[in-house]
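Worked example (supplementary).
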Amino acid sequence: MSSGRRQRLWRLISDRSLSEDVAISPGLVCEVCAGTLAVTGVGLSIISDPRRWEPVSSTTVVSARLEELQLTLGEGPCVDAFESGGPVLIADLDADAHLARWPAFAQAAAEAGVAALFAFPLVSGGIRVGVLDLYRDRAGELSSAELADALVFADLALLMLLNTQAGESLDGFDGTQDGLSGPRAEVYQATGMVSVQLAVSLGEAFARMRGYAFIHDLVLSEVAREVVGRRLRFEPEERA
Amino acid sequence: MDGVNVAREQQLADTFVALADTLVDDFDPVDFLHMLAERCVALLDVDAAGLMLADQRGALRVVASSTEQARLVELFQLQNDEGPCLECFRTGQPVAHPDLAQAEQRWPQFAPAAHGAGFAAVQALPMRLRNEVIGAMNMFLATPRSLDDTALRVGQALVDVATIGLLHERNLRHSETLAEQLQTALNSRVTIEQAKGVLAERLQIDMDQAFATLRDYARSQQRRLSELALSVADGSEDVIGMVQSPHRVSRPEP
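After joint prediction of all chains, the assembly is encoded as:
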């Protein structure tokens, strides 16, 4: 079911990478997302300890302005999305409720030409890496198909960022591989176990498990099952 | 006097009170759904219940179940490819089978797996909001039978309360749409699974015990399950402290 959408969207990204001879990157995800969905612009910020916002990519000047606003004002749908772990979908920024909720941000964003804003946190449980922001210059909701696509783009951006944070190159990145949005609990449980075994962050633990899967030609869920079944332990000297 | 009906009435009343108490308070959606799954088992006299939510990308994910035993949770999870839960989600209608030993043709993977795990019958009820189906409640029975009409009505009402609970939380947290609530609840569940992993490894216990530890500690400390899960998962919680004083009672300063 879900894999069809993922494959289709990954294909758009990998095709664009080949045809325009550009590297796979979160920036490319933003470009393809902006070209696929009926939105005016897409931006992405990385949020690192301690709550430092680093705008990484934007497809329009307004997107760049939005990322910058969040950095300076520290409020807005994107901040809330990152903190709650769930998307914040604002179909009409001009509504009173939003002006009250984010007084400084709503005003500044409206002045910049933003009428609707959809913020997707790049998270997986306790792994929190950044936010993917989509905006429109006209009010209007995302359709359920657009929502599904946006969630998948966010999943892909998250995986890419975890890769790069673990020091891996994105050459040969496979967007159809097991990620962090699957239904199986073992991957998440194993991530927690490995983070303790290696005394590393959850994101790092996940990267190590992926590395192990790659080297041993296994699927991530198999590695997870072995970890949860206590047949596989990660020792600190185990390198991916 | 019908002793069974009086007992059931008492259970229904208790459940109603517990749900109302929760909904007027500051509650954690995953914890709430977990309680509902447990109540389902008690009230409807079934043997396991699991609540699955659509991840809005095309898959169903377990967000709460009456049992945390991996083997049984797996039976809910594998219904992403086939099974009563998937049919229920797609059609928005209740789906049941009173004798899984006869259901292999209908569900070639699911039926033998469920039967092999000791279940003889299954019932799925849709989580609906107006025209949208957002998930399903899946129940397993150890003996081959169907739920009677009263049980089905009570079951559907409990499932509807689950939906209300998710929506209600939205109002408290300014969320605009059900979509936001679903994703937040799903992410909460991921955090809980990660926290279970951390506890299982730190304390050398199984996932079932890990969940119980999390839940009991959250209750005794009056902390939200998701918030506790986050600090356990990211390593900032004193895990040993959770076990040493699971039912901390406040004492006056010496």
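Two points are worth noting when inspecting this output. Confidence is low (pLDDT under 50) at residues 248-254 of chain B. The beta strands of chain B are 48-54, 60-65, 95-97, 121-129, 132-141.
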